[in-house]
Design brief:
alpha+beta; two-stranded antiparallel sheet
Length: 234
């Protein structure tokens, strides 16, 4: 039985949803509530991401690539589900060999506090050597400077290692760029997370900035189109 036939039969059985709203992505398939129950997972069924489909697929591409290299990766949906468990996310973390001290505020194991009430959730969480947690952010478009600085400040205050994987405009916003009068620092240098006067040196530190590399050719082409449209608009 072909994969297409299996998808058709599972859709007819109410286990999957299908959509062709994004022609560049072809037919997109995701699990229904009924499908989630049959899969015996603690996660709820995902929603159609709409205009965030490209970002969702880019994050999935990055997560799969990291797992293929032997890393333990948790998605945003997984970490939100873990944080919702009574008593916090300590049990699933213990299963991964991560020791987490009880938190004064619920919901801060994976997320980082932004201000007094809000939380920022990373796209992915990595279990690093030694049983510590690291965040992965996948960015296709530069954020508003105020929002980016708030997120960077939160990671710094939480002492959380974070890897930013971004398109060329995002990398430039974070680590700056060369100009006629020398290197113009980016937001990461302004926040004291990268040394001033040059790009990310690649040394071990709380923040790393890298160009986003997408392995799926269809998603990669759409990311390039997205960046091109952003350049024209700005």
């Amino acid at each position: 039985m072909s994969a297409r036939t299996r998808v058709r039969l599972m859709t007819e059985a109410g286990l999957l949803h299908r959509s062709a709203e994004a022609p560049w992505a072809g037919t997109t398939v995701w699990t229904s509530e009924r499908g989630v129950r049959h899969a015996a997972t603690t996660l709820s069924a995902p929603r159609w991401p709409g205009e965030r489909l490209l970002h969702r697929l880019a994050v999935a591409d990055v997560g799969l690539a990291l797992e293929a290299k032997g890393h333990t990766v948790l998605t945003e949906r997984e970490i939100r589900s873990a944080e919702a468990i009574d008593g916090g996310a300590w049990e699933p973390l213990e299963d991964l060999g991560v020791a987490v001290e009880p938190r004064a505020r619920r919901g801060e194991t994976f997320a980082v506090p932004v201000g007094t009430r809000a939380l920022h959730w990373p796209d992915l969480i990595l279990v690093l050597p030694g049983g510590t947690l690291g965040a992965v952010e996948v960015e296709l478009t530069p954020k508003a400077p105020r929002v980016l600085r708030a997120n960077l400040r939160s990671y710094r205050q939480a002492s959380r290692c974070v890897l930013y994987l971004g398109t060329e405009p995002v990398v430039r916003q974070l680590q700056g760029s060369a100009g006629r009068s020398g290197w113009r620092d980016g937001a990461a240098q302004e926040m004291g997370l990268l040394p001033s006067g040059g790009p990310d040196p690649g040394t071990a530190g709380p923040l790393s900035v890298r160009r986003l590399v997408v392995e799926d050719p269809g998603v990669a082409r759409q990311v390039e189109r997205h960046v091109g449209r952003h350049r024209r608009l700005t």
